[in-house]
Amino acid sequence: MAEVEETLKRIQNHKGVIGTMVVNAEGIPIRTTLDNSTTVQYAGLLHQLTMKAKSTVRDIDPQNDLTFLRIRSKKHEVMVAPDKEYLLIVIQNPTE
Amino acid sequence: MEIVYVYVKNRSDFGKQCNFSDRQAELSIDIPPNPELMEQFVIRDPVDTGSQCSCDMSEHEVNTERFEMETRGINHLEGGWPKDVNPQELEQTIRFRKKVEKDENYINAIMQLGYVMEHCIKQNNAIDIYGEYFDEEDEVEVSDEVLSAKTINVFRDPHEIKRTATHLSWHPDANRKLAVAYSCLDFQRADVNMSYDSFIWDLENPNKPELILKPSSPLVTLEYNPKDSHVLIGGCYNGQIACWDTRKGNLVAELSTIEFSHRDPVFGALWLQSKTGTECFSASTDGQVMWWDIRKMNEPTEVLIMDVSRKGVLENALGAVALEFEPTMPTKFMVGTEQGVVISCNRKAKTIAEKIVCTFSGHHGPIYALQRNPFYPKNFLTVGDWTARIWSEESRESCIMWTKYHMAYVTDGAWSPQRPAVFFTTKMDGTVDIWDFVFKQSDPALSLKVCDEALFSLKVQDNGCFLACGSRLGTVTLLEVSPGLCTLQRNEKNAASSIFERETHREKILEARHREMRLKEKGKIEVKEEEGEGEVKINQEELLALTEKEFFDVINTEMKRRGSTLKKAVSKVGAQRGIHRSRRTALEGLLMS
């Protein structure tokens, strides 16, 4: 329990990190540093995208699986670490 | 035959309602069959008809009604809370969250994911992984382009008695005109009826020359004035210099007086860089270089005798065949001679001795072409005998680069004005060689056979794409080279300059070595001269006796080693005492092995 806290805190304190969220498969934010509506929005959209990416990877090679998803946009980078039930989402402003 | 039924009606009955009633069938016409027509028919036997025995089928099309689909998104403002949790109630949600956080799965999952996530975050922080790092490095373009050159046009000498096209000059501005000097260079073999005319050709019209220049003696060389494209200077076979103005017509505008002109054909005439644009100089095999001002052609303004011993004596002079002048270096000029020596001169020097700066010798025969590299003027190309050589001003004893000895005499050469590493040469077997020493040094990059007779002259146009070559029968061929040979390649300037520097350096090292060796030899000769001649003979006798003794010693030891069979052979050999020293050593060697 404490390690979880520590891990999440560490992640949040990294340079450039704007927000961290842990969301479950139903879209309920378990832990978040942003406001509720943003979190729920991210959760809903990213869940679908992750599912799609996962199925794509598995379609190409059934032995393969998605480990990480990174979306780099003009403003920042969204990193999604998927799990069976949960999603860890971090929004970071990468160093230019 | 018409079948007609007629009926009559009163006019007052028109428009009345029709009353239809049945009537018995009436026979209108009865046409009996005509047996005579039977004759026109033939009974067919057998008869071919198709029949089919299958079940009847029918075809129907059915289209279902379209299933309407629509994709919609729902913007959730709240997650999918389980039924028992009321999302509005903060207490309940917190309780739910706490429950999840206690879940074993959750903890493991977060640890796992956190690890991966941290890696990526750190990666992001460390470097910009999407940045362009190797922007400056351009892809190395290997030009796979096949080098080629094709003939665009051929200009033939319209006269019956063919003369050699000895010199070509491109029009300075438009490059659309080519001036060709025709003459016969074979000594005293020129036909009596040979015409003296030279032509200016327009590239568009190969059938008829644009302008015919009529000198009093055939022209060996002809040059356009780079400043004024209407003026041309020509060097005649009899040694005179003639000047034309194309606006004034085809007769000579100015002609030098025969007393003060050259005594031999003028092989080189070039325009000089001057404010008035009227100065030129000429060189001939009589060993003189003369400077002229075309406004006053009766006398040369200056004369220089190509005497390498720097005394200005005409008898020792070397005949000049090629002349070189680079507008960027107006005080220097170079002369290529019949004897295979290139003389570099300084015009501005006060005394005759100083005028001749240095000489470069290396060719076995007359130097037919001499040109500085347009990009690196310190290096120049000479063409003569069977090779083309590249020299550097710094290395005076030998050339820095040279081609192999060809089967045919090389008659003319020129650098490409666009590429520092490319030059062209023509040979007596009618081939044009295009050399690119950044690409290949042992062979020409491209070798084309232009015509069957010998090629005598070559001139490249300023854009480097076109080159004209003149042959012995007066045929001028215009060639276009592929773009790879006339566009500056990437890094070519650097590569060419590094090649030049490297070769110059190598030559310098060799020169230094030679000098050292020469000094050593000089020293040795001096020491030897001190010993008298008589001693030399005695030395030889002693040497002979010594070697004989040594020889027999060796034999004896060998014999002892090998036994009696050898004894017999050696005793025979030993009997022939007067054998040459070399045979002795050979025998020694044999026996030793």
From TrEMBL, chain A:
Q: Quick check: keyword Cytoplasm in the entry?
A: yes
Keyword Cytoplasm tagged: yes
One Pfam family here: Robl_LC7
Keyword line: Cytoplasm, Cytoskeleton, Dynein, Microtubule, Motor protein, Transport
Q: From the UniProt record, which GO molecular function terms apply?
A: dynein intermediate chain binding
Biological process annotations from GO = microtubule-based movement
In which broad location class does this protein mainly occur, judging by the first location in its UniProt entry?
Answer: cytoplasm
Give the UniProt subcellular location, in the record's own words.
Cytoplasm, Cytoskeleton
GO CC annotation: centrosome; cytoplasm; cytoplasmic dynein complex; microtubule
The record's annotation in InterPro entries points to: DYNLRB1/2, Roadblock/LAMTOR2_dom
Tell me the ranges covered by the Roadblock/LAMTOR2 domain, including all copies.
4-92
Its annotated function is as follows: Acts as one of several non-catalytic accessory components of the cytoplasmic dynein 1 complex that are thought to be involved in linking dynein to cargos and to adapter proteins that regulate dynein function. Cytoplasmic dynein 1 acts as a motor for the intracellular retrograde motility of vesicles and organelles along microtubules.
Similarity annotation? Belongs to the GAMAD family.
Q: Assembly and interactions?
A: Homodimer. The cytoplasmic dynein 1 complex consists of two catalytic heavy chains (HCs) and a number of non-catalytic subunits presented by intermediate chains (ICs), light intermediate chains (LICs) and light chains (LCs); the composition seems to vary in respect to the IC, LIC and LC composition. The heavy chain homodimer serves as a scaffold for the probable homodimeric assembly of the respective non-catalytic subunits. The ICs and LICs bind directly to the HC dimer and the LCs assemble on the IC dimer.
Q: Would you tell me the protein name for this molecule? A: Dynein light chain roadblock
Q: Which gene encodes it?
A: DYNLRB2
Automatic annotation (TrEMBL), chain B:
Keywords for the protein's UniProt record, in alphabetical order:
Cell projection, Cilium, Cilium biogenesis/degradation, Cytoplasm, Cytoskeleton, Dynein, Microtubule, Motor protein, Repeat, WD repeat
Could you tell me what this protein does? Answer: Part of the dynein complex of respiratory cilia.
Quaternary assembly: Consists of at least two heavy chains and a number of intermediate and light chains. Interacts with DNAAF2. Interacts with DNAAF6/PIH1D3. Interacts with HEATR2; probably involved in outer arm dynein assembly. Interacts with CFAP53.
Q: Where in the cell is it found?
A: Cytoplasm, Cytoskeleton, Cilium axoneme
**GO biological processes:** cilium movement; determination of left/right symmetry; outer dynein arm assembly
Q: Which family would the database say this protein is a member of?
A: Belongs to the dynein intermediate chain family.
Name the record gives this protein: Dynein axonemal intermediate chain 2
Q: List the GO cellular component terms.
A: external side of plasma membrane; glial cell projection; microtubule; outer dynein arm; sperm flagellum
Organism expressing this protein natively: Vombatus ursinus (Common wombat)
Q: Which Pfam families match?
A: WD40
Q: Where are the WD repeats?
A: 403-436
User: Which GO-annotated molecular functions does the record name?
Assistant: dynein heavy chain binding; dynein light chain binding; microtubule motor activity
Q: What InterPro entries does its record include? A: Dynein_IC (IPR050687), WD40/YVTN_repeat-like_dom_sf (IPR015943), WD40_repeat_dom_sf (IPR036322), WD40_rpt (IPR001680)
Which superkingdom does the taxonomy of this entry point to?
Eukaryota
Report whether Repeat shows up as a keyword of the record: yes
Q: SMART domains given for it?
A: WD40
